[in-house]
Every structure is written in structure tokens, then in C-alpha cells.
Design brief:
3-stranded mixed sheet; alpha/beta; Spore Coat Polysaccharide Biosynthesis Protein SpsA, Chain A; 12 strands
Length: about 375
Amino acid sequence: MALFNRITVRRLPVDAAAIEPITVCIPARDEVRRLPRLIGDLRAQTGVPRMQVLILDDASSDGTGTAAAAAIGDDPRFIMVRSDTEPEPGWTGKAAACARLAELVDTAVLVFLDADVRLAPGAIAAAVAELRRSGAALVSPWPAQEAGSPTEALVQPLLCWSWASTLPVALANRSLRPSMAVACGQFLAFDTAAYRVIGGHAAVAASPTEDLDIARALRRSGRHTTLVAAGPLARTRMYGSAAELDDGYTRWLWSAYGGSPLAGAAVGTVAALAYWLPPLAAVAGRGRTRRAGLLGSVAAVAARLLARSTETGGPLTRADFRAALGHPLSIAAYARLSIRSHRARRNGDLRWKGRDLTIVRDA
């Protein structure tokens, strides 16, 4: 499956142009380090002569607004607004911020970006060109995930691997099955009319994975969504440290597999058997057992490398090989994060950026 996707997954086109009006929306809460760099990338975009950018400073307490204003300078394409209002009951902060931004949009194309995304000059034009070429209601360009610590290197590649090794994306992009939708909320390009028909982010107000659920909502309404690989036009370091990664995954991982702890435990058990037994057999087994273990271990490493190559679109690095060889440790890290997330949900300790997500869940 990973080889099939490496061959068939579409990439964002190079040297594209989009002449229609486009609005880029950026919800930002406590992003003083990251947001100015994204603003610099947006100021350097090519092929989008009618692009405007809306930034919502979502009650930041770290000087995000001041840093963003300095990065914008006198560029008239940028508009920044400040919100000090907390989300209404039943809304996550991300969904509420996106909905507030969308209310200000009057263009036919709506692009959402997270502050941690970095863009090459033609990235926005490429995403819009792919949206129009495909005829989809939503194009999700998957940014290459970067890591700055050993923990990140173990966990972050699992995001792409999870779909690249299990889902035939070229076929899923032609399907309307909600269960076959994949989306990454860091970079989303919508047909604005389709977005509004389903109610926009109000349709996924309480979801801890609003990106995936809004893609599913579009498919249930009879509209296609498409996943494309965005590397090397888009990249991101989602979390800045191992501690931030722990908090980030704890916030939402409980919701995987319908939010059922039993389903999560079942998936974790299958993954452990599939990716721990082969290396154990390769080391401790004999004869056929050892050969089978070696074959299984090589297959796991190959799938990780193929998924990584699909994601980045560039040559594999030594770090990629080291991370792939550590795949059994990645599965262990996933199991730990899943248990931590379910425990936090049970204890009412779900929080993100100073906001209590238990209130959202209960609402």
C-alpha cells in the first residue's frame, strides 16, 4: 500500500497561478515565534495577485499581535483582528477562531493555515490550482512534518504513515465515503460556497479533529475532498518540544476510533503484535521464525520510508532511516500517548493552550 501511494499520490503542482480572489485565514493563539515567519512566507507568495490575508489574534498573552504587526509592516493585503472573547460552550478554540475569520470572507476560495506552517513561494497558488483542477470542495495539501527532538522524530512520521500504509489515496480521493477522508488542518483550501453550505466550522464546533470531521461533513453532503502531498512546497514543525507534543496528542488522540477506549486498545494491540513480534523473532528466533521476523521487520521499515518519501517529495535523510528503524519504539510511543489521552479525558484533564476542553466535550 505504501508503495502504491508513493507512486500514485498527487503532489501540489509547481509554477501554478491563481488569478481569482483568494482569502487566507490564520487563527493564532500564543504564536509569537511562528506567526511572523509564516507572514514572511505569505508576503513572498507568487502566482496569487488577488490574495488577501486575515489573521485572528485569539486572546494571545505572549505578544503575538505585536510581532505579527511588525512582520506585516505596511502590506495592504494583510488584515489583523483581535478577539478576547472565549469560545461559546460546545466550541473548541480552533473551530471558533476559524468560524470568526470565515465570517469576514467574501472570496470564492478560502484557505486556512496554521501558524506553524512554512511555505515556498508558489504554495498558495498551487493549492488553489489543485482545488480548481480537481473540482473538489476541499483540497488538503499535506505538509512535510519536521522534527526537532528524538521524541518528535519517533511520533510525527506516524501521521503520514497512518494513511500512506493503509489507504489507497488515489481511490479515496474519488470516493464520497466519509470513512476514506483524510485531511490536515494545518493547510486547507476550500471552495467557499461548499464550505458555507455545510455550515462551515459550526458543523464541527466541538470536534477535537475538526479538519477530518469537516472533510467527512463535505462528503456526506455529496462533495468531494482531496488529499495531495505538499512537500516541498509546505512543511511544518507541529510541536516545539517533547512536552508540547505530549500535550498536543493528549488533547485529541482519545477521539480516534470513535472515542472508544476498547477500540483504541484493540488497535494498539494489533499494532504491537504486527510491529513488535517481527523484530523479536528476527533477534531471538531460529530458522523460519527468524526469516519471517526479518521479512516483517524489513516490510515495516520499507513502509515507513515510502510514507516519508511520499510526504516530503525529496531524498530520504539519515534521520529518516533512523526513525524508520525505530518503528517499534514509535508504536510504543503511540500506545503511551493513547493511554495518556484516554486517561486525561476520563479525569477531565483535557486542556490546550490554557483552555479547558472538558467543557467542550461535555457540551
